[in-house]
Design brief:
The structure holds two protein chains of two kinds.
Chain A: H1 5-14, H2 21-38, H3 76-80, E1 86-87, E2 90-91
Antiparallel strand pairs in A: 1-2
Chain B: H1 8-16, H2 22-40, E1 43-46, H3 48-63, E2 75-79, H4 106-113, E3 117-122, H5 156-164, E4 169-174, H6 180-186, E5 189-192, E6 212-217, H7 220-230, E7 260-264, H8 265-268, H9 273-288, E8 292-296, H10 304-319, H11 338-349, H12 352-365, H13 371-391, E9 397-401, H14 417-422, H15 425-433, E10 437-444, E11 450-456, H16 462-476
Parallel strand pairs in B: 2-3, 2-4, 7-8, 7-9
Antiparallel strand pairs in B: 1-3, 4-6, 5-6, 5-10, 9-11, 10-11
Helix pairs in contact in B: 2-3, 5-6, 10-12, 10-13, 13-15
Classes of the chains: A mainly alpha, B alpha/beta.
Chain lengths: ~100, ~475
């Protein structure tokens, strides 16, 4: 067994993901199977291997910097258009701080 | 006009000869696509108004004697993970069922600047996570070749529309095989360019170090022409490559004599017989054309799936964090507090596969596990990329299967996620290494199911990949 039900609940908490009880049982089964397969990587000695953190990048480090030219931003109206709740130019969320 | 047989060059010739106008073509293509869609469920949204506007502007240019663009009048479909301004983009997710993007992806902008006509948005697995298109919140896509079977995934709709003839070209996205596998299942051409070749600006992020946009078409020259339009540096994507984009059309000269093509031993072990036979037959065609065939080794292939499902899910768990009920259309009605808003919105909005990957990705990145999983996978990714680099010291291209088997039946693999993951074995390595790779149709099984031949080349050498695929396609049809 690679992962416990308690760990599943903890990870769901970290991921801000509400899972129903039947989903937790199913998730434990699925992740267990996947993590068992992933164990295969331990067959390889990677102590002298560098991590591949960048896929490809052959240009100068500064090449992606652009000229300091003004460009029109998206604007808050467009940015807010898909919000479930907005007002006064802001996204609205449930109250965070009680007075 | 027969929409199933149109090509970019054919449309251009017809438009210039005034056989029909771009507007007439767009009208007919939309009507045909709408009428046929119930057979496959491949389109999620049609963009008739936008198509008519784009085609009218092509007609105006032709009337004025101006160049109408490299894709003049060509009906094109776009996978629904690629943003289109003012046109609903769902990512195959119930969470984004009413999301209207405020901007166009760079690839979409470039298509329309080149005179391409966007007909609509295609169905896909939710957030491009899946290998069968069965993970869409809007129902699965049926394979146009065999309606009881899947079209492959995640770009199932984009492959299906090209196979069905309800678009001439389409855009898909590939993170672990999501262009090549559906292309092989539906019998069309599908291309995953070098990582960074095509800007990811406006592609909904799944796994940023693995995501690619690429073309689907019926012929290799059409795929090359579409890549020509969308490829090249874009200041809106810092990872887009500065490498110059060569003229792909000029490389489609059929000259493959003397090219060295490697067959990875690891890809031909345990290959289901019918698929294996068709791949061997395709390799024989390349041999007859004068290619030199050699066996090569890609020894870290057995570690690719594990590596991929750590890196892809880790990146996905961060990328999907943004769907939290604040900005993207959906918020749980049951949420009273901020924390409930996050947790319930995500719990109600995401489908099972997305949840599975968010959970795995969060787990492998969590305190105490980072080195054992994520860092380890990044190191093995180096070994996989090195396998290819060493192979390309001996050969100019690598050929093999796309998938171990042809299109499977709807529902056949949904209950076994690991078996579904394992079926991506031949496509995942190309994404991990970031090299260009494509699927070109290489015949059908006795049951009439298409099989695809996969071709890989060195970073930024799409030219050789297209040359081999085009020579093969000409010799085999």
């Amino acid at each position: 067994m690679k992962i416990t039900e308690q760990e599943i609940r903890h990870v769901a908490e970290l991921a801000n993901l509400a899972l129903a009880e039947d989903e937790i049982a199913r998730m434990k089964h699925d992740l267990d199977e996947i993590l068992t397969h992933i164990d295969k990587l331990n067959e390889l000695d990677t102590s002298t291997v560098d991590a591949m953190t960048q896929v490809l990048y052959s240009a100068e480090e500064t090449a992606t910097l652009r000229e300091d030219v003004e460009v029109a931003p998206l604007g808050s109206k467009a940015a807010l258009e898909n919000a479930p709740l907005a007002g006064h130019g802001y996204f609205k969320v449930p109250k965070v701080i009680e007075r | 006009m027969n929409l199933r047989q149109l090509s970019i060059q054919g449309i251009r010739a017809d438009l210039l000869a005034k056989k029909y106008s771009a507007r007439e073509l767009a009208q007919e293509a939309i009507a045909f696509a709408q009428a046929e869609n119930s057979k496959t469920n491949a389109y999620l949204t049609f963009s008739a108004e936008r198509a008519l506007e784009a085609s009218a502007s092509v007609d105006q240019k032709i009337a004025a004697g101006e160049d109408p663009g490299a894709l003049a009048g060509v009906p094109i479909a776009v996978k629904d993970v690629i943003l289109t301004r003012g046109l609903r983009t769902t990512c195959g997710s119930g969470l984004l069922a009413s999301y209207i993007p405020p901007y166009d992806a760079t690839a979409v902008q470039r298509i329309e600047q080149a005179g391409g006509v966007i007909l609509g948005k295609t169905n896909c697995d939710e957030f491009a996570m899946g290998s069968s298109n069965e993970n869409s919140a809007f129902g699965p896509v049926r394979n146009p070749v065999a309606p009881d079977r899947v079209p492959g995934g995640s770009s199932g709709g984009s492959a299906a529309v090209v196979a069905q003839g309800t678009a001439v070209l389409s855009l898909g996205s590939d993170t672990g095989g999501s262009i090549r596998q559906p292309a092989s299942f539906c019998g069309v051409v599908g291309v995953t360019p070098t990582y960074g070749r095509v800007s990811r600006y406006g592609l909904t992020a799944f796994a940023s170090s693995l995501d690619h946009i690429g073309p689907f078409s019926r012929s290799v020259p059409d795929a090359a022409a579409l890549l020509q339009v969308i490829a090249g540096r874009d200041s809106m994507d810092a990872t887009s490559a500065f490498a110059p984009v060569p003229d792909y059309a000029s490389s489609l000269d059929g000259k493959v004599r003397g090219l060295k093509i490697g067959l990875p031993r690891e890809y031909f072990e345990n290959l289901e017989s019918e698929t294996g036979d068709l791949i061997h037959r395709a390799v024989d065609v390349l041999k007859k054309l004068g290619c030199e065939i050699r066996e090569i080794r890609l020894p870290h292939t057995p570690y690719a799936i594990a590596t991929y499902y750590i890196i892809a899910t880790a990146e996905a768990s961060s990328n999907l964090a943004r769907y939290d009920g604040v900005r993207y259309t959906m918020r749980s009605d049951a949420a009273q507090t901020l924390s409930e808003m996050y947790r319930l919105t995500r719990g109600e909005g995401f489908g099972a596969e997305c949840k599975r990957r968010i959970m795995l990705g969060t787990y492998v990145l969590s305190a105490g596990y980072y080195d054992a999983y994520y860092l380890k996978a990044q190191k093995v990714r180096t070994l996989i990329a090195r396998d290819y680099a060493e192979a390309f010291e001996q050969v100019d291209a690598i050929a093999g299967p796309v998938s171990p088997f042809p299109a499977f039946r709807l529902g056949e693999k949904v209950d076994d996620p690991v078996a579904m993951y394992l079926s991506d074995i031949f496509t995942i390595t190309g994404d991990l290494a970031g090299i260009p790779c494509m699927s070109v149709p290489c015949g059908e099984t006795a049951a009439g199911l298409p099989v695809g031949l996969q071709i890989f080349t060195r970073h930024f050498d799409e030219t050789t990949m297209f040359r081999v695929a085009d020579a093969y396609q000409r010799a085999s049809t």
